[in-house]
Design brief:
By secondary structure, the protein is mainly α. About 70% of the residues lie in helices and about 0% in strands.
Length: about 300
């Protein structure tokens, strides 16, 4: 047994494996491109670590690709078999529900974990993610309000709590509270991509296009090593330029930024759902404005055709 960075007991073979697990969680929270490599390193140290197996399943589900679901189901079964604590068993059960398509059941399971362990950052962040994709802004906000009293800047991961407090409040229209939380998170870590993203939403919703461009440009220097969320941030910047009628700038950001085929991130996952959403939604908007987008639809159509029926 060991203790993770937020004070939760985890079943693992060594303190080194526990530290490696914390490194993976941090990579996930901070949208690091090497999060998968971090997980491989942790599992090399302890292949039977229940929470490591949970993370294997989580990462499979985060791909939003039906071909990956069996991996998640297998990981959940292994984690349940090897779990040494009730919390670990609850995580395995939540993952199993998610992999089986019972997202409401998974949300309920994560809420139960948070009620007993309000510093369980993984349960909190997965709940935030899945509630968002179901359009459950109120559920997101209730979760962050419930756990926030148990957190402080002294606890690793606090910036992610602030970033999620921002996004939950933004989705509920509480823009002032949201912006204050996100700016506090970015003050702690200028490379906090989720907090940066939250402010991008707020500035979009309030029509503050010039501020939005300046916000993203100023923070871009801190984005090295980020995951595909970088593409979505460039998409947000393109949205501001679109509102200003700067169509050449939008197309430039499309080709050099969020749909750059020379990018290692795009090459590694050419049909990642969020990347395809970014691209398709921007091309649609440009065409609505009468902009000729050339043959950019073709490669998206090919990717989409290969995933027909994958819901």
């Amino acid at each position: 047994m060991a203790i993770d960075a937020q004070g939760q007991t985890i079943t693992t073979a060594s303190d080194a494996a526990a530290a490696a697990y914390d490194h993976v969680v941090e990579g996930y929270l901070k949208y690091r491109a090497d999060a998968g490599q971090r997980l491989k390193a942790a599992m090399t140290l302890d292949p039977d670590m229940p929470m490591g197996l949970v993370l294997q399943g989580v990462f499979a589900m985060l791909a939003y690709n039906a071909a990956m679901v069996p991996r998640a189901q297998a990981a959940a079964a292994s984690a349940a078999r090897l779990a040494g604590t009730d919390r670990e068993r609850a995580h395995a059960a939540a993952l199993a529900r998610w992999a089986d398509g019972d997202v409401d059941g998974a949300l309920g399971a994560w809420e139960a974990i948070m009620a007993a362990h309000p510093r369980d950052i993984l349960a909190f962040r997965l709940h935030h993610f899945c509630a968002f994709w179901l359009g459950r802004a109120g559920q997101m906000l209730r979760a962050v309000d419930a756990v926030a009293p148990s957190w402080s800047a002294a606890i690793p991961g606090y910036g992610s709590i602030l970033a999620c407090r921002c996004f939950a409040n933004e989705e509920c229209g509480n823009y002032q509270v949201a912006e204050e939380a996100a700016r506090a998170a970015v003050a702690l870590d200028p490379g906090d991509l989720w907090a940066t993203h939250g402010v991008a939403h707020i500035l979009e919703m309030q029509g503050r296009s010039g501020e939005g461009i300046a916000w993203l440009k100023a923070l871009e220097q801190h984005w090295d090593g980020g995951s595909n969320l970088l593409h979505h941030l460039w998409w947000h910047r393109a949205m501001y330029h679109l509102e200003r009628g700067e169509h050449d700038e939008v197309l430039g950001l499309y080709d050099r930024g969020f749909r750059n085929h020379a990018s290692a991130l795009v090459q590694a996952m050419p049909d990642l759902y969020i990347d395809v959403q970014n691209a398709a939604s921007m091309l649609f908007r440009l065409e609505r404005h009468g902009v000729d987008v050339g043959d950019r639809w073709v490669e998206l159509a090919d990717k989409a055709e290969a995933r027909i029926g994958d819901c």
